[in-house]
Amino acid sequence: MTDVKPRIKVPKTAKKGEIVEIKTLVSHVMETGQRKDAEGKTIPRRIINRFTCELNGKPVCEMILHPAISANPYISFFVKVEESGTFVFSWFDDDGTVYKTESKIEVTA
After folding, report:
1. To bridge 84 with a disulfide, which of 19, 63, 96, 107 should be the other Cys (CB 3.0-4.6 Å)?
2. Number of domains the chain is built from
3. pLDDT digits 0-9 by tens, 49-103
4. What is the dihedral of CA 98, 94, 66, 4, to 10 degrees?
5. Contact indicator for 102, 86 with CB cutoff of 8 Å
6. Total-model pTM
7. How far apart are CA 19 and CA 38, in angstroms?
8. Which tens digit of pLDDT belongs to each residue from 8-63?
9. Is a pLDDT exceeding 50 seen at residue 1?
10. Please, what sign has the CA dihedral across residues 84, 90, 3, 71?
11. What is the pLDDT of residue 2?
12. Strand ranges (E), 16-84
């Protein structure tokens, strides 16, 4: 699936100990495997089944997603930041593909 596009919104800066909101959206059809095409054949299941976020290699957020999640899943969560670094976001597809993107944040005293 070549049209999968992760988008993220992370503040560029934050103060040490500040709680910041992270917003993500990935363009993905999230096909449940329950619909049929025009010829009556079942469209194979194809969903993002897992999402993870790490900051400097440490887990920040992990979610298991199920077929009830809508197309183009939007995920928002909060993180208390203690140090500057790089967030790495990963979306895991049923077919084994992993879509990744990252964003840096600078933490000041």
Report:
1. 107
2. 1
3. 999 999 999 999 999 998 888 889 999 999 999 999 999 999 999 989 999 999 9
4. 50
5. yes
6. 0.88
7. 48
8. 999 999 999 999 999 999 998 888 888 899 999 998 888 899 999 999 999 999 99
9. no
10. negative
11. 54
12. 19-27, 48-55, 58-64, 74-80
Residue type, 60: V
Number of neighbouring beta carbons within 10 Å of residue 56? 13
Structural domain that includes position 42? 5-108
Contact 64, 49 (CB under 8 A): yes
Query: Tell me, what CATH number does 20's domain have?
Result: 2.60.40.10
Strands 98-108 and 85-93, how do they pair? antiparallel
Cα 51–Cα 55–Cα 59 angle in degrees, nearest 5: 50
Strand partners, 23: 9, 76
Separation CA 38–CA 36 (nearest Å): 7
**49 Cβ partners below 8 Å, 6+ apart?**
64, 65, 66, 92, 93, 94
